[in-house]
Automatic annotation (TrEMBL), chain A:
Residues 151-533 form the Aminotransferase class I/classII large domain. This is alanine transaminase. GO terms for molecular function: L-alanine:2-oxoglutarate aminotransferase activity; pyridoxal phosphate binding. The keyword Manganese does not apply. One of its GO terms (cellular component) is cytoplasm. Belongs to the class-I pyridoxal-phosphate-dependent aminotransferase family. Alanine aminotransferase subfamily. Homodimer. Gene3D superfamilies: 1.10.287.1970, Aspartate Aminotransferase, domain 1 (3.90.1150.10), Type I PLP-dependent aspartate aminotransferase-like (Major domain) (3.40.640.10). GO terms for biological process: L-alanine catabolic process. It comes from the Eukaryota. It comes from Cyclopterus lumpus. It catalyses: L-alanine + 2-oxoglutarate = pyruvate + L-glutamate.
From TrEMBL, chain B:
The gene is si:ch211-217a12.1. Coiled coil: none annotated. Catalyzes the reversible transamination between alanine and 2-oxoglutarate to form pyruvate and glutamate. The lineage of its organism: Eukaryota, Metazoa, Chordata, Craniata, Vertebrata. This is alanine transaminase. It comes from Cyclopterus lumpus. CDD domains: AAT_like (cd00609). GO terms for biological process: L-alanine catabolic process. The keyword Repeat does not apply. Pathway: Amino-acid degradation; L-alanine degradation via transaminase pathway; pyruvate from L-alanine: step 1/1. Residues 124-512 form the Aminotransferase class I/classII large domain. Its EC number is 2.6.1.2. One of its GO terms (molecular function) is L-alanine:2-oxoglutarate aminotransferase activity.
C-alpha cells in the first residue's frame, strides 16, 4: 500500500485495515496458484486499489477522497470465481450472440446466419425429440391428458408410475434430494442391464441437475488441505472445461495429464505416472477424472486401457471419476463402450471392493439430446458410508434436482420395450439419430483431412471433432501482439468472416505450440457439409493471408 | 412418494457427533500421513475419501429442513408400509413448504402450456385454449430448434427475462427493470448461493461476513458454511411479531467487525420461518442501514404473493429503494430473488426462479455471467413455468377467469389456514404464536418443562429436537425444531407449514395441542 494512499485514510479506516487486510490487499486476487493450464487469457489481474475495494464513503468525503466504490468490485469479489474460465460459452460465444443480434437488426455481414457449432446442443441443431419421451412428459405436466385416447398406453403407464412416485401425484412437488425412489430403482436396473448383470444398488444412485451438477458435487466433497496437502485432481488435456472451471472455483489443484494425439487421443499410463509424480511435489493428488467417450477429443477407450486406469487408480489411491455421458455415442468400427463400473467388477474383488468410483450420465447427450431438462445421475461405488451421509446432506440443501429432468431420466433408462405400442417408433427414431451421427462423424473426419494444415483424428464417439490446425507464424505473431491465443484469433476471424462459431483448442487445453478447435458434428448433414466446406475455404484463405 | 433413508437415527446421531467432534488439526495430520504413505508406496488402509479427509466446509453444512427428523419420518413411513404398528396411520410431513405434496392442485393454465411445450404436437389439439397455445408458441420460438430440450443462454431465455422485467415494472408501479439485470436460476436457492459465492473473499479477520436473521431459513447458514464465510446473526424481535430492529442490526454489525469483514445483509420478506411481513418503514430503515454500513443487500422475496394479514402489504426492496431517491437508488447494491415454488403456484419440483441485480459493478456482472455459464443453463421447463408466472392470462384472454378462480382459491385458503393456525395454537397453554402475516409457516414458541430439557440434554439432544422427535414417534407429525433455524438462547420453537388442507390442518393442530399438554404433564 502506497504512502499517498494511506494519507486520506481516517483513523477508523486504519483500524479497519488491520494487518490481515493489508496482507490480502497486497496479495490481491492471486490466491490460487493451482492453475497450470494456459487457458484463454482472462482479464488481467490488476492490483486492487483501496478505492475499488470500497471503503465507507462518509469517511472518504471527510477527507475529500474519491467517491465511495461499490461494495462488490472485481477486486473484492471471490478470487476463485475470477479464476474460473469456461470457453464453451466464453468470449467467442458472446461475440456470436452479438453478431446474431446485428444480423437481426439488418446489418450486412458476409453470411446470413450464425452457426453455433461450439456446443453439443442437439435440438438447437434441429435434432427432433424422441416422441415417446415428450408424450410422457406432457402427460406428467398435464395429467388430464391421461384421458386422451391419442396417447399410447405405454406412455400413459410410464406417466402414471412417475406421478405416483411424486408427492401429491404432481411433478410440482419436491422430490427426495437424492432423486425419486422409483427413478433411482429404474436407473439401477438400467445399469445392471448395461453391465451384463453387475449389481447396482439404487442407494448408490444420486439423480442430479445434469451431469455437471454431479461432477461438481463430487469434486467439492474431495477438496481439502492447504498448501502441499491441497487436493489435486488429475484431468486429461484436452479436457472438458467444466473440470478446470470447477477446480478453479474450489481452489483445488489441477493436475494435467496429456492424451496422445498421435495415437488417436488415447490415454497413456506412462503419462499418468509422470503427471502424478510431478504433482506430488506440490499437492496431494486424490482424484483421477476420465471422460469416455472423450470430450472434446472423441476417442473411445479400449477395455484394456480402462483396466490399466483402474489398476493405476488402485495403486496410487486415487478416487476415480468416470464421465460417461456419451455412452451411447460410439460410431467407429471396432469401438465399443465399456463402463468403468463393469470393467472394475470384471477385474475381481481385489479391485471391485476397493476402488472408489463415481460415474456420471445425463439426458443431454446420446440419442436424446435433451440438454434443457438438466437431467442426470451419478452412481457411487465403494464410497465410505459416512461420506455418503455427508453427500446426502449436501445435496439436500438444494432440495432436489428438477423433477421433469428426473422424469426424463426415468424414460431414458426405461424406454419402450418390445411388445409395447411405442417400441417400434422409439427404436426407429433412436436409430435414425445415432446412424446420422455416425455418418456425420465420418464425413467430418473425411472433409477436414482433405485440408492442408488441418489434421483430424477419427471421431470414434461423442459429438465433436477436435482437429489440429497449423497456424502460420505470421498469424501467431499477430495474435500474440493482440494478446490473444493464436487459435482464439483464428476462431474469431472465422466467426467474423463466415458466421461459424467454434471453440478454440486453448479453451480445452492442448500441448504447447499446437492449435486446435472443437466443432460439434451435430448440424444436419447438408448444413454440416456447408459448414465443413466453409471452414475448409477459410483455412486455406487464412493460411494464404498469413504466409 | 418417499425419500430414501439409508441411516438409522442412531447412526445419524453418531454422524452428527463425528461431524462436530473432529478437530481440523487431526484431519490435517491424517491427510499429510496419507499423502506421504501414498508417495512412499506403502500399503494404505481405509478409503481415499473418508470423513477425515473430505472437504471440511461440507462437513459443517447443516440443513434442518431435510435433517435428522425428516430422515426418521421417512423411516417411519417405510415401517408403516411394512405393517409395523404405530399409534397413527400416516406420517404428516409438515416440515417443508411443499404445496403440491400437501394436495394443492397445480394451476391449470400453467400445466397446459408446459404440456404444449413438452409435446408441441398438442398445438393442433383443439382442447387447449388459444392463450395457452400462444404462450407455448412464444416460448418455443425462443428456444434453440424450437425445443425446450435445447440449452438456453446461461442467463436464461431472453424473452423470459424480458417478461420478468415487465412483471417487476408492473409490480413496482413503473420503476424500470432491465432484462439484462435478470438472471434466471434453478430455484431461488441456486441464485442465492451464486450471489453469496461472488461476495466471499478474504482471510481471517478480513473474511466476508454475511448478516442473516435469526431465526433464518437454513439455506443461508448452509451456504455460508459451505463457502467458509462468517455468519453474522441478527435477532428478530419475537415480542414485536418478529420484526426487524435497526438497533439490533447495528449491534450485530459492530460486534462482527471485531472478527470479520461484514459485507452483506440478507433479508427474507415475507419471513421464513417466522411469517412476518415487513412494513415499508422497516424496509427503508434497512436500506439506509445497508448504505451507511456499506453492505450488499440480498432480498429473498419468494413469498411475495403470500400476504394474509389485514393491514399488511408486500413492498419490494427494489421499489422502496427507488422511491427513496437517487441517493439510494443509484448506490445501494442489491439482489432480489423470486421463485416458482411458493406463492399460489407451489411448483417446487420445476426449480424455476430468478434474481434481479441492481447497481452491480459491470465487471462483477460479467463475472457472474461467466460463473453461471459453467452450469450451462437453468432447467428450461422451470424457465418456461416462470414465464407463465410473470405473464399470466390477461382479462381478455380465454383462460383468465379460470386462472383467477384457481389463484384466488389457493391464496384465500392459505389466508384462512394462517388465521386458523394462530388461533388454535394460542389456546394451548405453553404455546405462543405470532400471527402468520405471510409466507407459509408458523414458528410458535413452546415452553418446555425443565425436566424435559434435562432429559434431552442427557440424551445429547437439543430440547426442541427431543420434543419434535417425540411428537413424530407418538403422533406421526413431522415438524422442524426451532434450533434448525436459530433462536434466542433458552427459547424453543418449531416450524410447521400451514399448507395441509383445512380439515387435515385442524387435525394436525389438534394433535399437536394434545401432545403438548401431555408432554408438559409428563415432564412436570
Amino acid at each position: 500500500m502506497s504512502a499517498t494512499r494511506m494519507q486520506w485514510l481516517s483513523p477508523r479506516n486504519l483500524r479497519l485495515l488491520n494487518p490481515g487486510r493489508n496482507e490480502s490487499l497486497r496479495r490481491g486476487g492471486s490466491g490460487c496458484r493451482s492453475l497450470t493450464l494456459p487457458l484463454s487469457p482472462g482479464r488481467a489481474l490488476s492490483g486492487p486499489s483501496a478505492t475499488r475495494r470500497g471503503l465507507p464513503k462518509e469517511k472518504m468525503t471527510e477527507n475529500r477522497a474519491p467517491p465511495r466504490a461499490k461494495v462488490l468490485t472485481i477486486d473484492t469479489m471471490n478470487p476463485t470465481v475470477r479464476k474460473v474460465e469456461y470457453a464453451v460459452r466464453g468470449p467467442i460465444v458472446q461475440r456470436a450472440l452479438e453478431l446474431e443480434r446485428e444480423l437481426s437488426e439488418g446489418m450486412k455481414k458476409p453470411f446470413v446466419e450464425v452457426i453455433k457449432a461450439n456446443i453439443g446442443d442437439a435440438h438447437a441443431m434441429g435434432q427432433q425429440p424422441i416422441t415417446f419421451f415428450r408424450q410422457v412428459l406432457a402427460l406428467c405436466s398435464y395429467p388430464e391428458l391421461l384421458n386422451d385416447s391419442t396417447f399410447p398406453e405405454d406412455a400413459k403407464s410410464r406417466a402414471r408410475r412417475i406421478l405416483q412416485s411424486c408427492g401429491g401425484n404432481s411433478m410440482g412437488s419436491y422430490s427426495a434430494s437424492q432423486g425419486i425412489d422409483a427413478v433411482r430403482q429404474d436407473v439401477a436396473r438400467y445399469i445392471e442391464r448395461r453391465d451384463g448383470g453387475v449389481p447396482c444398488d439404487p442407494d448408490n444412485v444420486y439423480l442430479t441437475t445434469g451431469a455437471s451438477d454431479g461432477i461438481v458435487t463430487m469434486l467439492k466433497l474431495l477438496v481439502c488441505g492447504e498448501g502441499a496437502t491441497r487436493t489435486g485432481v488429475m484431468i486429461s488435456i484436452p479436457q472438458y472445461p467444466l473440470y478446470s472451471a470447477a477446480l478453479a472455483e474450489l481452489a483445488a489443484v489441477q493436475v494435467n495429464y496429456y492424451l496422445n494425439e498421435e495415437k488417436c487421443w488415447s490415454m497413456d499410463l506412462g503419462e499418468l505416472q509422470r503427471s502424478l509424480e510431478e504433482a506430488r511435489r506440490h499437492c496431494n493428488p486424490r482424484a483421477l477424472c476420465v471422460i469416455n467417450p472423450g470430450n472434446p477429443t472423441g476417442q473411445v477407450q479400449s477395455r484394456q486401457c480402462i483396466e490399466d486406469v483402474i489398476r493405476f487408480a488402485a495403486k496410487e489411491r486415487l478416487f476415480l471419476m468416470a464421465d460417461e455421458v456419451y455412452q451411447d455415442n460410439v460410431y467407429a468400427d471396432g469401438c465399443q463402450f465399456h463402463s468403468f463400473k463393469k470393467v472394475l467388477f470384471d477385474m475381481g474383488p481385489e479391485y471391485s471392493d476397493a476402488v472408489e468410483l463415481a460415474s456420471f450420465h445425463s439426458t443431454s447427450k446420446c440419442y436424446m439430446g435433451e440438454c434443457g431438462f438438466r437431467g442426470g445421475y451419478m452412481e457411487i461405488i465403494n464410497m465410505d458410508e459416512e461420506v455418503k451421509a455427508q453427500l446426502t446432506k449436501l445435496v439436500s440443501v438444494r432440495l432436489c434436482p428438477p423433477v421433469p429432468g428426473q422424469a426424463l431420466m426415468d424414460l431414458v433408462v426405461n424406454p419402450p420395450q418390445p411388445g409395447e405400442p411405442s417400441h417400434d417408433k422409439f427404436i426407429k427414431e433412436r436409430t435414425a439419430t445415432l446412424s446420422a451421427l455416425a455418418e456425420k462423424a465420418e464425413l467430418t473426419e473425411q472433409v477436414l483431412n482433405t485440408v492442408p494444415g488441418i489434421s483430424c483424428n477419427p471421431v470414434q464417439g461423442a459429438m465433436y471433432s477436435f482437429p489440429r490446425i497449423t497456424i502460420p507464424e505470421k498469424a501467431v505473431k499477430e495474435a500474440t501482439d493482440k494478446g490473444q491465443q493464436p487459435d482464439m484469433f483464428y476462431c474469431m476471424k472465422l466467426l467474423e468472416e463466415t458466421g461459424i462459431c467454434l471453440v478454440p483448442g486453448s479453451g480445452f487445453g492442448q500441448r504447447e505450440g499446437t492449435h486446435h478447435f472443437r466443432m460439434t458434428i451435430l448440424p444436419p448433414k447438408d448444413k454440416l457439409t456447408i459448414l465443413l466446406n466453409k471452414v475448409k475455404e477459410f483455412h486455406q484463405r487464412f493460411t494464404q493471408q498469413y504466409s | 412418494y418417499s425419500d430414501h433413508c439409508p441411516l438409522t437415527p442412531l447412526k445419524w446421531a453418531r454422524q452428527l457427533f463425528l461431524i462436530n467432534s473432529f478437530s481440523v488439526r487431526r484431519s490435517a495430520r491424517d491427510i499429510t500421513n496419507m499423502s506421504q504413505q501414498a508417495a512412499n508406496g506403502l500399503p494404505c488402509r481405509g478409503k481415499v475419501l473418508n470423513l477425515d479427509n473430505m472437504n471440511p466446509n461440507v462437513r459443517r453444512v447443516e440443513y434442518a429442513v431435510r435433517g435428522a427428523i425428516v430422515q426418521r419420518a421417512l423411516q417411519i413411513d417405510k415401517e408403516l408400509k411394512e405393517g409395523v404398528k404405530k399409534p397413527f396411520t400416516e406420517v404428516i410431513k409438515a416440515n417443508i413448504g411443499d404445496a403440491h405434496a400437501m394436495g394443492q392442485k397445480p394451476i391449470t393454465f400453467l400445466r397446459q402450456v408446459l404440456a404444449l411445450c413438452a409435446y408441441p404436437d398438442l398445438l393442433d389439439d383443439n382442447k387447449f385454449p388459444d392463450d395457452s397455445k400462444q404462450r407455448a408458441r412464444r416460448i418455443l420460438e425462443a428456444c434453440g430448434g424450437h425445443s425446450i430440450g435445447a440449452y438456453s443462454s446461461s442467463q436464461g431465455i431472453e424473452c423470459i427475462r424480458q417478461d420478468v422485467a415487465r412483471y417487476i415494472e408492473k409490480r413496482d408501479d413503473g420503476i424500470s427493470s432491465d432484462p439484462d439485470n435478470i438472471y434466471l436460476a434453478t430455484g431461488a436457492s441456486d441464485a442465492i448461493v451464486t450471489m453469496l459465492k461472488l461476495l466471499v473473499c478474504g482471510k481471517g479477520r478480513d473474511r466476508t461476513g454475511v448478516m442473516i436473521s435469526i431465526p433464518q431459513y437454513p439455506l443461508y447458514s448452509a451456504a455460508l458454511a459451505d463457502l467458509a464465510a462468517v455468519q453474522i446473526n441478527y435477532y428478530l424481535d419475537e415480542d414485536k411479531c418478529w420484526s426487524l430492529d435497526i438497533a439490533e442490526l447495528k449491534r450485530a454489525v459492530t460486534a462482527a467487525r471485531q472478527h470479520c469483514n461484514p459485507r452483506v445483509i440478507c433479508i427474507i420478506n415475507p419471513g421464513n420461518p417466522t411469517g412476518q411481513v415487513q412494513s415499508r418503514q422497516c424496509i427503508e430503515d434497512v436500506i439506509r442501514f445497508a448504505k451507511e454500513e456499506h453492505l450488499f443487500l440480498m432480498a429473498d422475496e419468494v413469498y411475495q404473493d403470500n400476504v394474509y394479514a389485514e393491514g399488511c402489504k408486500f413492498h419490494s426492496f427494489k421499489r422502496v429503494l427507488f422511491e427513496m431517491g437517487p441517493e439510494y437508488s443509484t448506490t445501494v447494491e442489491m439482489a432480489s430473488f423470486h421463485s416458482t415454488s411458493k406463492c399460489y403456484m407451489g411448483e417446487c419440483g420445476f426449480r424455476g426462479g430468478y434474481m434481479e441485480v441492481i447497481n452491480m459493478d459491470p465487471e462483477v456482472k460479467a463475472q457472474l455471467t461467466k460463473l453461471v455459464s459453467v452450469r450451462l443453463c437453468p432447467p428450461v421447463p422451470g424457465q418456461a413455468l416462470l414465464d407463465l408466472v410473470v405473464n399470466p392470462p390477461q382479462p381478455d384472454e380465454p383462460s383468465y377467469d379460470k386462472f383467477m378462480k384457481e389463484r384466488t382459491a389457493v391464496l384465500a385458503a392459505l389466508a384462512e389456514k394462517a388465521g386458523l393456525t394462530e388461533q388454535i395454537f394460542n389456546t394451548v397453554p405453553g404455546i405462543t404464536c405470532n400471527p402468520v402475516q405471510g409466507a407459509m409457516y408458523t414458528f410458535p414458541r413452546i415452553t418446555l418443562p425443565q425436566k424435559a430439557i434435562d432429559k434431552a440434554k442427557a440424551e445429547g439432544q437439543v430440547p426442541d429436537m427431543f420434543y419434535c422427535m417425540k411428537l413424530l414417534e407418538e403422533e406421526g407429525i413431522c415438524l422442524v425444531p426451532g434450533s434448525g433455524f436459530g433462536q434466542r438462547e433458552g427459547t424453543f420453537h418449531f416450524r410447521m407449514t400451514i399448507l395441509p388442507p383445512t380439515e387435515k390442518l385442524k387435525f394436525v393442530l389438534q394433535k399437536i395441542s394434545d401432545f403438548h399438554i401431555r408432554f408438559t404433564q409428563e415432564f412436570s
